[in-house]
Amino acid sequence: MATTPQNALPNLHDYSHAQLLELLDELGQPKFRAKQIEEWIWDKGVSSFDEMTNLPKALRSALAERCTLGGVEQVVCQVSTDGSRKYLLRYGDGVAVECVGMPTGPKLAVCASSQAGCGMGCSFCATGAAGLTRSLTASEIYDQVLHVRDDFGMRVTSVVLMGQGEPFANYDAVLAAMRRLNSPDGMGIGARHITVSTCGVIPQILKFAREPEQFTLAVSLHSAVQKTRNMLMPGVKRWSLLNLYEAMGTYVDMTGRRPTYEYALIRGVNDSEDELQALVDFCRGNLAHVNIIQLNEVPGSRFRPASDARAGEFVRRLEKAGVEATIRISRGADIDAACGQLSQKKRR
Ligand code: SAH
Ligand code: SF4
User: Fold this and answer.
1) Are residues 78 and 223 in the same domain?
2) 304, 273: one domain
């Protein structure tokens, strides 16, 4: 998409509360206008200043001269037979990301992206294969959730940052988005129902442990054998499994919260007896929940999922060792919305 002169103006969605107060001060406006504007942006999700009907007309045009209200534009929405919907959403500069809405009765879970593409290069992941285009801003992450909420016309009850991208390679924006999702001025989603998933960026795990909110942490483990993990996840090779083990120990000590470990079962790669034993050893005695995910096949990849029987066996053996474990059922597989299948390709 061509850059129009409009795009040169700053996006009001990117303003912090302090920056908004500063702008209103410059315009000779009282402070309470900030709250009104934030409500229009973060709750109602309006796309033009004229819709901000409780603002004086002069203020609406003054704002329109100084900034844009760039939200997201829907390029495609695919609906799965299980009711989930996958969206391709485009930002002002033409960059597009995918996100997914998954309804279950009165509940609506959203899977959002933190980056366009991903630079971590995991060998089993469609996003990894495409490389990183750019990181998203906090409002770009938030706006995905707002879009899904409005499309379903339902309250969002949980958010997982498990779409495209490595959230901890975009830490500040991701945390700001999570805070806004959690805030009563934003979407008011309980912190425990907001989950961030990382491939294991150790310094950021330790930083995250010090954040005051009760957000949920998921770590993509995929193998507790160093050689296998290095092959599957080359982007985190520089941190050993021992580093990860210690960092997670610190995380649990500091927060008292149970982290989730994601483990996508890949036939002949990480589903052997040795791999299972290493996984049990990694988790045993620690506060942990293991999510066994059947690998979703990615076009062009040589990896295949393990058998359902093997997945069941993993769960049984973990539970026998006192480790909480479940098999995660992927939603939206028929529209390529399942884990690791999100890419930027456009389908019609
Ligand atoms: N970058 C983050 C979050 C996004 S990926 C991370 O890696 O944790 C969300 C989850 O999907 C991760 O656990 C990831 O390892 C998993 N995943 C990626 N490709 C997959 C595939 N082909 N099948 C199943 N899960 C996959
Ligand atoms: Fe990136 Fe996560 Fe995919 Fe790895 S699994 S390439 S970290 S999105």
Assistant:
1) yes
2) yes
CA of 252 to the centre of ligand 1 (A): 22
Which ligand is closest to the CA of 262, given by its number? Answer: 1
165 CA distance to ligand 1 middle (Å)? 9
Q: Which amino acid is at 311?
A: A
User: Does residue 346 lie within any of the structural domains?
Assistant: no
Q: Give the number of the atom of ligand 1 that is nearest the alpha carbon of residue 305.
A: 23
List, by residue number, the catalytic residues.
98, 339
Is residue 85 within 8 Å of residue 79, measured between CB atoms? yes
In CATH, what number is assigned to the domain containing residue 129?
Answer: 3.20.20.70
Closest CA to 298 of 328, 332, 343, 261: 343
> Residue length, the chain?
348
The answer on 162 and 56 residing in a single domain is no
Tokens 């040589």 correspond to 302
262 lines ligand 1 (CB under 6 A): yes
Whole-prediction pTM:
0.91
What tens digit of pLDDT does each residue of 11-63 get? 898 888 899 999 999 999 999 999 999 999 988 888 899 999 999 999 999 99
Query: What residue owns the CA closest to ligand 1's atom 9?
Result: 162
Q: How far is the CA of 240 from the centre of ligand 2 (A)?
A: 17
Q: Which of 200, 182, 105 is nearest to 138 (CA)?
A: 182
Q: Would you place residue 347 in the very low, low, confident or very high pLDDT band (cuts 50, 70, 90)?
A: very low
With a CB cutoff of 8 Å and minimum separation 6, the contacts of 231 are 123
- pLDDT of residue 5 exceeding 60, the answer is no
Ligand nearest to the CA of 340: 1
